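Hey, quick one: can you model this chain's 3D structure?
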Amino acid sequence: MHASLRKLRALWAAALLTAALPAAAAYPDKPIRLIVPYAAGGGTDTAARMIAQKLAPLLGQPVVVENKPGAATQIGTSYVANAAADGYTLLMGTANLATNSVLYSTLPYDVRRDLTPVAWATDVPVYLLVPASSPVHDLAGLKQAARQQQGLAFATAGTGSIPHLAGEQFARDTGIALRHIPYKGSSEAATALAGGQVALSFDNLAPVYAQVQARRLRPIAIAAKARNPDLPDVPTLTELGVPLTASSWWGVMAPAGTPKDVIALLNRHIGTVLADAQVRRYFSRLGMQATGGTPQDFGRHIDEETQRWRTVVQQAGVKIEP
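Sure thing. Here's the predicted structure for all 322 residues.
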């Protein structure tokens, strides 16, 4: 048989075989779940729902937020770490991806082994707050009050949180004697601060914004590189001579082994969402800064944060009670 005829028949047979095979489904062809490792209503949940709302039309499928709170985000994070690596189960990861590996001797997942970064979504700077009734209006006043009272108590939403660790670093950087009082969430901490049970607190803006607006709490500094345009009178700690920046942060993660083209698609569309002016303004009002970048950018950030807070935990002797 002539060589060209044999080649033609081979190509024809291959074409028939390809036509007989079912077409590979284009991703996504069904709803995507975005797991939030906190209860509904908090900052992480709020950010996740905004991103899900804007992401769905870009993907052509619903993005359903599911809350799986508990064990300092370990329940929700472990759920995603053990999910199928097909891009249909994602995690709204938090700064606990960095701090849990430092604070707990064992975890039901390994961030590097079991998860892969998709996109860094938001940065959430920590604020230094005092009661509105406090005579303290600035860092100099805080130092004076600490000297007079031989130290001050500060509140946070829990041991090992980014605000707590920021407070520990602040104490070391300034020489101000501080004693940590953990509460069961930002609401309790803010109530205690407004009532004068503690002298100051460190927290993100979103959970205490209503108290700030009602003039029950007064922010006197922000641990960020720049001031918040919505609170332009609040200086950065760097401006006050304390080169401290500290932020909680959130970003989307997927199970390890998720196809690279799926990760790339999700990253591109999440980047579009984060560039949306409405989204950026919404986040800004809640003290959040839209970030974005590549999966590699987010992965490096997690690694850097892990090392940074490991040092603070070791120096301050922070321990999680069993």
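One thing worth noting: The longest strand covers residues 115-131.
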